[in-house]
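Hi all, long-time lurker, first post. I run a small reading group and we've been trying to get comfortable going from sequence to structure in the token notation. Rather than ask abstract questions, I figured I'd post a concrete chain and ask someone more experienced to write out its structure so we can walk through it together at our next meeting. Sequence below, copied exactly:
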Amino acid sequence: MRRWFFASESVTEGHPDKLADAISDTVLDAVLTQDPLGRVACETLVTTGKAVVAGELTTTASLDIEKITREAIADIGYLGDAQFSADTVEVNVLIHHQSPDIAAGVDRAEEARAGSADLYDLLGAGDQGIMFGFAIDETPELMPIPIQLAHRLAHRLSLVRQNGTLDYLRPDGKTQVMVEYEGRIPIRVTSLLISAHHSPAADIDNAMRHDLWEQVVLPSIPENLLTDNISFYVNPSGRFEVGGPHADTGLTGRKIIVDTYGGYARHGGGAFSGKDPTKVDRSAAYAARHAAKNVVAAGLASRCEVQLAYAIGRAAPFSIHIDTAGTSEIDPDRLEKLVTDFFDFRPGAILDRLDLRRPIYRPTAAYGHFGRPEFPWESTAVAPELRKSAEAL
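-- Answer (accepted) --
Happy to help. Here is the structure in token form:
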């Protein structure tokens, strides 16, 4: 049986791109707290001594965006740094209203203008585009194991910094995991990489390497996937004293593969953070994951990828495609019919089904949008009925 290898990376909440995502999603949550119908497209740039928050807001909410930005930066741990700190950073706010042409298509979809009385035909897609959702039975979360392990490492790296276990760590960091497969089965982790932002006093060659293995790797990677000959890299370029936005400019939406499936499945190209749920880049990607996960949870396939495509101003998807890579337990045409019967992919239906008009987005800004049970699109409550219907066909 063929053996092959796949690697995925993750980053910590203090990575510059993730800091930008966090600020954008904090603005979004602040709007939705006051105005569930608010429209938000918020982009953030962070660099040495500066944070620029730009985009479009259409809302009744009253916000102090500079204060929101400083609080998000402080929450992640950038305090007291001479080059980038929540209390000294220069915050530039460049916000305007959503284009009236886009708003018109969202507020009244083409179907509604044609006379449809269906409430879900009222809300049109805010843009054209393609979105993918994916699930696979490699992990209990129904996620590809390389990205799931990379997220565990990144989250643990932040945790041991925050709780003081490794007090020389700083907020920035990256992880990478390579997994060896035999056929479709992941059999071991062959390589691990941790790049950890640290204080000048850190001993990266001895104590830090030992600490990261004991405090980050062992609690994060299942014992059965670790072997004696694993390759373990710590800060392979040398010291990592200069990090965060001072070392690397961060932008909202620049970690779309980290946010999704680690490259294991396809991606439509649209980013998530800073976008309210009328933007199908975000909500339809969540709906596609929800559908794919329930197909796999129902035992109808061992892997499932759902592609959705939209046209701006239309409610109904431009197209729907289901791909199980030959693992479907039923006829693929029947499976596609089941998915379209059980899951309404019009934007209004998605918002209602997943209850997306509420402030739940700030936690998505780091460690992936999928494979985390706290999010509504991760529910597998539909799976039993999906299975029952498949058996009745």
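A couple of things your group might point at:
The first helix runs from residue 16 to 34.
The CA atoms of residues 298 and 388 lie 9 Å apart.
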